[in-house]
Amino acid sequence: MSLPNLQIACDHSDLPTALADITKVGDVVDIIEAGTILMLQVGEYAVKCFRALYPDKKIVADTKCADAGGTVAKNCSEAGANWMTCICSATIPTMIAAAKEIEEIQVELYGDWTYENAQQWLDAGITQAIYHQSRDALFAGETWGEKDLKRVKKLIDMGMKVSVTGGLSVETLKLFEGIDVHTFITGRGITAASDPKKAALDFKAEIKRIWG
Amino acid sequence: MSLPNLQIACDHSDLPTALADITKVGDVVDIIEAGTILMLQVGEYAVKCFRALYPDKKIVADTKCADAGGTVAKNCSEAGANWMTCICSATIPTMIAAAKEIEEIQVELYGDWTYENAQQWLDAGITQAIYHQSRDALFAGETWGEKDLKRVKKLIDMGMKVSVTGGLSVETLKLFEGIDVHTFITGRGITAASDPKKAALDFKAEIKRIWG
């Protein structure tokens, strides 16, 4: 079992606060994500600024692309992104078109996706998925449970590299013990902490303690 | 049966060419859409510029929002959008959160949505849907067929206002004769024409001929 990555999601509504937050922890985390909210507000500048600040980090454009995969992926790649997300309800041709234009595609799992879908993604060469506890679902009182963990395990058993996100804290990481999680993604779990750098280091230390 | 609207989709990768195209036809069309590609490239500026140029038109932010509906909708509304799209795989809490912050939500239909989903959207007060022939599916050789028209009719019968989009031309409008389509959405069907204003007027005339 390899050490899961730590990814910071920048879901700010403006670039200045995103930059202020990311520069506190950019050196600590493994992957930096330009969140959907941020990209819809400031466009490719989010990716371009992150790339300029962190030339050697993996950068994800969380476009949740549903269509025109080729164009969106080309734009993201040119802006400096390594990976880009597609929504699970995108068609296979959309995902394939996107995959041709950028290093890797990650499928964002929302709503009623099936393992049959997952097999189609794998067959199309898409090997990354993001298991997402919806922020709004979390607000509505739902949380990580055995059902979620079973789904994550099943996807990993099928051969997918699975990132998990949604309401994660240092304390919740141990829920995933024994599961070969690819990446833990958190936003405010780090940025909203009183000491974001310490929070990022705490995440890394707990990941190392459990999976190291 | 009321007269369907004509909506122009601006799916450009940069703002200058979007503005050059939109100003040719903005006065003719009923609804102006800041496309997903454009918003991911230039952010809220797309909506802000369209609102500044066309203070009295309906403006749609095609965010295909999958999560954080409240934040995305608030941002779009503040930028000047009337309507915003959510992807069909977004959770109901996401759609409800979005609907609280903007005039109307439109559900973008991709992948394996069901009529049971549609009923849930209606029950949540979401009454607009966009039936979308995927651009990549069109590239892969798929086109409008009887199956699509039946689905559009069924959604309308359920009580949804349905916009249709994907590979539409003046010639294909008559396929929808007898169907109470809410809005026809086209991008390059107008912008790629040798005379975009004439193309927009031709669309309007054909809509009036069939539904007037």
UniProtKB/TrEMBL annotation, chains A, B:
User: Would you say which domain of life the source belongs to?
Assistant: Bacteria
Lineage of source species: Bacteria, Bacillati, Bacillota, Bacilli, Lactobacillales
CDD domains on file:
KGPDC_HPS (cd04726)
Q: Which residues form the Orotidine 5'-phosphate decarboxylase domain?
A: 5-203
Q: Which UniProt keywords apply?
A: Carbohydrate metabolism, Lyase
Task: Give a Pfam family name.
Answer: OMPdecase
Note the SMART domains from the entry: OMPdecase
Please give the InterPro entries that the UniProt record associates with this protein: Aldolase_TIM, HPS/KGPDC, OMPdeCOase_dom, RibuloseP-bd_barrel
User: Which organism is this protein's natural source?
Assistant: Candidatus Enterococcus lowellii
Q: What is this protein called?
A: 3-keto-L-gulonate-6-phosphate decarboxylase
